[in-house]
Amino acid sequence: MDRQRYWIERSFQDNKNEVAMDEYQVRKYRGFYHHMSLCMLATLFLMEERMDCKDTLPLLSCADIRRAMEFLMPKKVTNLEEFCVQMEVRHIKRQKSIDHASRDAIPH
Hints:
The chain is mostly helical and 108 residues long. Helices cover 72% and strands 0% of the residues.
């Protein structure tokens, strides 16, 4: 049960960080529901992309996909090698975080 909590918390963290779920400034429920609906749609897109790439990039995160989109969009120019190195560094950190959370969840 403790390990399931990690993935739920990770989902909320991704939603807040990557699709701005917590950055709504509305006064009525209709605006709130519109914002949450768009956040859910964006999250669905990110999750589908992660599922499509899970065999080749098992540690791909929502942040990686967002950064890949920023790289591929015409407004920002950087080289592909640097992008791949940064993603590899993030994957190493992410794996350490997963290992640490798994280690803490096991009763001693």
